[in-house]
Amino acid sequence: MRLRELAQRLGCRLEGDGEIEIHSLAGIEQAGPGQLTFLANPRYAHKVKATRASAILIREPVAGLACLVSDNPYLDFARALALFYQPPRPAPGIHPSAVIAPSAVLGPNASVGPLVVIGEKVRIGANAVLYPQVTIYEGVEIGDDFLAHAGVVVREFCRIGHRVTLQNHVVIGGDGFGFAKDAAGRHHKIVQSGIVVIEDDVEIQSLSSVDRATMGETRIRRGARIDSLVQIGHACEVGEDSILCGQVGLAGSTTLKNNVLLAGQVGVAGHVTIHENAVVYAQSGIGQDVPAGAVVSGSPAFDMKAWRRAVTAFPKLGDLMRQVRQLERRLAELESARQESSLGQ
Amino acid sequence: MRLRELAQRLGCRLEGDGEIEIHSLAGIEQAGPGQLTFLANPRYAHKVKATRASAILIREPVAGLACLVSDNPYLDFARALALFYQPPRPAPGIHPSAVIAPSAVLGPNASVGPLVVIGEKVRIGANAVLYPQVTIYEGVEIGDDFLAHAGVVVREFCRIGHRVTLQNHVVIGGDGFGFAKDAAGRHHKIVQSGIVVIEDDVEIQSLSSVDRATMGETRIRRGARIDSLVQIGHACEVGEDSILCGQVGLAGSTTLKNNVLLAGQVGVAGHVTIHENAVVYAQSGIGQDVPAGAVVSGSPAFDMKAWRRAVTAFPKLGDLMRQVRQLERRLAELESARQESSLGQ
Amino acid sequence: MRLRELAQRLGCRLEGDGEIEIHSLAGIEQAGPGQLTFLANPRYAHKVKATRASAILIREPVAGLACLVSDNPYLDFARALALFYQPPRPAPGIHPSAVIAPSAVLGPNASVGPLVVIGEKVRIGANAVLYPQVTIYEGVEIGDDFLAHAGVVVREFCRIGHRVTLQNHVVIGGDGFGFAKDAAGRHHKIVQSGIVVIEDDVEIQSLSSVDRATMGETRIRRGARIDSLVQIGHACEVGEDSILCGQVGLAGSTTLKNNVLLAGQVGVAGHVTIHENAVVYAQSGIGQDVPAGAVVSGSPAFDMKAWRRAVTAFPKLGDLMRQVRQLERRLAELESARQESSLGQ
User: Fold this and answer.
1) What is the rounded distance in angstroms from the CA atom of residue A219 to the CA atom of residue A172?
2) Do the domains spanning C3-84 and C93-305 agree at the CATH topology level?
3) 8 Å CB contact between A196 and A172
4) Could you say which of A187, A234, A271, A275 is catalytic?
5) pLDDT tens digits, one per residue of A308-342
6) For residue A93, what is the enclosing H or E element?
7) In chain A, which residue ranges form alpha helices assigned H by DSSP?
8) From the list A150, A247, A282, which residue is nearest C247 (CB)?
9) pTM score > 0.90 for this model?
10) How close, in Å, is residue C196 to chain B by CA atoms?
11) Between chains, do C177 and A150 touch, taking CB under 8 Å as contact?
């Protein structure tokens, strides 16, 4: 595709030679001739000079390189990438090996792959793509444009909105982890009578689990994005546009408000609220509410700037301990000297 | 159900109007008219006054609210919930799409869902429920009342007791992680010749893995409860009634004695023993034996009370460092002043 | 098998009675009569005297116990174990319930289990074993001696070398986690146009995920070993013979050079390089490059020896804080005493 056409399709201003032929996209360091790259993070601005790309998506045009000028180079890069690559989409139709209950209702244009199982009274909207080996338990309701990769399981009675994508082996609505102890110390399972509700435009990556609620619902709100190997406990609520990175875990009844960011391997205790726009650094542990807009780190987590100072000091903690012992000795010496001198007076 | 009947079925003493109609249950804050709630944790006692529930399961009756008086309100709440909701149970019978080896033996009343695979010489007891897409490898032995959700895999020769429940995509008996390095630095796989034994009344949540032993067995003892995304390494032993919360990991040959509690994301090194009734806080790392009844936290973990003091101090570590530097300077000044004054004398 | 024969087959020198009949192998503490054990780690040398094994694989012969003398007792133990136990291997042949696209090509001697799905244009080499419920998406290329356990998924266009083993529910090539934010704060999915390349002799344990790259590839190099519940983000590179223990997570575009060891639950941020032979202790967090041969620990990680000192001091941090406050007071007293005495002069 010529750069001129790309500029038009993306709605970006072209600076430089519009006749350049672009065959693919690449990162600023990997890109070569015939490739388009991008600069989104000003931290990498010094890499622009060295790039071998034929063109760049960028906020401010630079000399000596064909530019597509964009207010949001990262988003436009994503849009450009989608012009060059579309993942294969199975043709509509229902594979004869799929096992679909008679009372299930599938919307128009559905693609149901081999060995899919759909239970009684399931309702799925238009344009669904169910890859092989997906299992939808009874009574599930799903909106339009559902995409479920091989191995996805949606458990009984859960509700899923429009344009939801579940990567491989995601489990929606597995039982919450709830037990009551008797006098003999044995655990009795608490029936998990609730469901999971997933709102529109949610995507969940491979091998993540969202547990059904003991009562009521676990809810993932519109636009939330959940990475791989994440565990969402029963009765949690994940706010709109929130991002949960890989291996995050939320214990039960925890609430994330809108636009929260949890970096990788963060753990959140039960019955805690993380408020709007809060950011939690990787591997942090959250045991208490986090205020709106806070940026926290550590296990247990506290203000990120204080955390930076503390972890910068931490490697010297052994030395600090020795130093304090020496101060103690020197001080004791001064004190005894003073006492002697007082006595001497 | 009338409150009176509920009291009878739970064996709780009724205080207040037995004619109240209860239609469902809810948490103390969510409950409304027609709902039963509970108070188990005294920490939430102040919430009783504000609840809109029609009745409450509680240790000591309170005025102005119908009460079911119970020695164990949480357990009775669990029992009450089971009176109001039972998860759907597939009818007995074997779906024609299931692939069952001729030498496999299934007990009476089994329900085998679509696309289940059962290998040669498998023996499963009475009342088994195998949801779709479950795979049981050859030579597995399983007791009565087995419940395996869609995607469960039980590997060759493993043994499972009675009343075991495995949530979706649990893997029992995957190979342990064992390699021997040769002189050239290459890893050679150590064949994992052992099995996994799961005793009675164990439940394992979605996407957890229990590895088979290199030799001998990995054992999950009676009544243990294992949450989602947990990894149990080869030749581990998990004690009776132990609880392992989400994303816990045990390296190989680790032993948990009875009634151990590991909170979320705890990691335990290999060849370590955690003794009876020990409690490990979330995200802790265990590299050494933990004595019976200990409560530990941190990575590496130590006594929880000392940990609380340490983590309370930690955010001020940067300041502490500065403070010690100042003390150092002030002390040096005093010392030199003293030296001067000695010289001056 | 007689010990003499075992010695011959392993190429080890025999010291002691070659007529002893060995029926199985066991660890040094568990072994009894008729069993062979081993001593690899000198730390356990004191256990040799107490072992009830009939023979031992060991570097230096000991008196009173039949010995197989080996330069690498651990490796020879692994080899011996393989003489006594071979996991069952399904017979070659294609189960009639497997769904194989017409354009897929399978090499000789393949075993394809029940309910396997193989997509269009897939090419798989000789001697493949695909257990039940494996799904291979379209366009995948796989070498010889591929072993995929039940529930494995390999996504579109990924490439896998020779002698690769994937344990249950491993996902290769799920979408990377990439989103671009628009002005309204909504996330737009970035199409994941790249693939995963897995080189020869790689093994990946249960329930682990290797994400496809946004562009280009994610690569697992020859001989790497990846444990269970590990997450490898898009465009990562894992070096030859590297070992990633359970629940490790790598964010995107991270590079591990050859022979790196990451212990359990380690997290690595994006765009970081861990150089050759580096060792990272369990639960550590890596946010910056790690030099070759470094041994690091902590979150964030630093030199392991400094870390040991710091974590040894850490439990006393509360006390240290009090101590510094007292030093402060005592010092202030001395200072005011000095001032008084100056004034008095």
Assistant:
1) 11
2) no
3) yes
4) A234
5) 999 999 999 999 999 999 999 999 998 888 888 77
6) strand A93-94
7) 3-10, 73-84, 304-313, 317-344
8) A247
9) yes
10) 22
11) no
Nearest residue, CB atoms, A177 vs list B150, B151, B227: B227
* Interface ipTM: 0.95
Long-range contact set of residues C37-45: C-beta below 8 Å, sequence gap at least 24? C38/C73, C38/C74, C38/C76, C38/C77, C39/C73, C40/C72, C40/C73, C40/C74, C40/C77
User: Backbone phi, then psi, for A135, in 5-degree steps?
Assistant: -125, 120
Q: Does A169 touch chain B (CB under 8 A)?
A: yes
> Residues with Cβ < 8 Å from C159, sequence gap 6 or more?
C140, C141, C142, C195, C196, C197, C198
CA C241/CA C259 separation, integer angstroms: 5
Q: Would you say residue B262 has pLDDT above 90?
A: yes
Asked if B75 and A180 come within 8 Å (Cβ–Cβ), the reply is yes
Spell out, as residue ranges, where chain A has pLDDT lower than 50.
none
Domain segments of chain B as ranges:
3-84, 93-305, 317-344
Give φ, ψ of B298 to 5 degrees.
100, 165
Determine contact: C100 vs chain A, CB below 8 A. Answer: no
Question: Does A183 contact chain B (CB < 8 Å)?
Answer: yes
DSSP state of A45: G
Helix (H) or strand (E) segment spanning residue B332 = helix B317-344
Tell me, yes or no, if C174 comes closer than 8 A to chain B by beta carbon: no
Strand extents, DSSP E, A175-252: 179-181, 187-189, 195-198, 203-204, 209-211, 217-220, 225-226, 231-232, 237-238, 243-244, 249-250
- Number of B to C CB contacts under 8 A, please give it: 204
Inform me whether the C-beta atom of residue B191 falls under 8 Å from chain C C-beta atoms: yes
pLDDT recorded at residue C341: 77
Apex B133 CA angle, B130 and B135, nearest 5: 75
The pLDDT of residue B344 is: 63
Can A187 be counted among the known catalytic residues?
no
Q: Which two tokens stand for residue B311?
A: 């983590």
Q: Is B104 exposed, middle or buried (0-12, 13-18, 19+ CB in 10 A)?
A: middle
**Minimum distance, in Å, between the CA of residue A306 and any CA atom of chain B:** 6
Q: Name the residue facing C133 among A133, A282, A334 (closest C-beta).
A: A133
**Contact between chains at C311 and B303 (C-beta distance less than 8 A):** no
Using CB atoms, which residue from A117, A314, A320 is nearest to B133? A117
Which chain A residues are within 8 Å of B259, Cβ to Cβ?
185
Cβ of A330 within 8 Å of Cβ of B327? The answer is no
The third-level CATH classification (topology) of the domain covering C93-305 is UDP N-Acetylglucosamine Acyltransferase; domain 1 (2.160.10)
CB contact under 8 Å between B179 and C264, yes or no, is: no
* Nearest CA-CA partner of C204 in C152, C252, C155: C152
What is the spatial distance between Cα C2 and Cα C68, in angstroms, rounded to a whole number? 12
Q: C151 vs A151: CB contact, 8 Å cut-off?
A: yes
Q: In this model, does residue C255 exceed pLDDT 90?
A: yes
Distance between C114 CA and the closest CA of chain A, angstroms: 11
Q: What is the DSSP letter of B272?
A: -
CATH class of segment(s) A3-84 = alpha beta
Residue C112 touches partner B, C-beta closer than 8 Å: no
Q: Do B115 and C115 touch (CB under 8 A)?
A: yes
Q: Do B267 and C259 lie within an 8 Å CB cutoff?
A: no
User: Percentage of residues in chain C with pLDDT exceeding 90?
Assistant: 92
Closest partner residue to A203 among C99, C189, C283, by Cβ?
A: C189
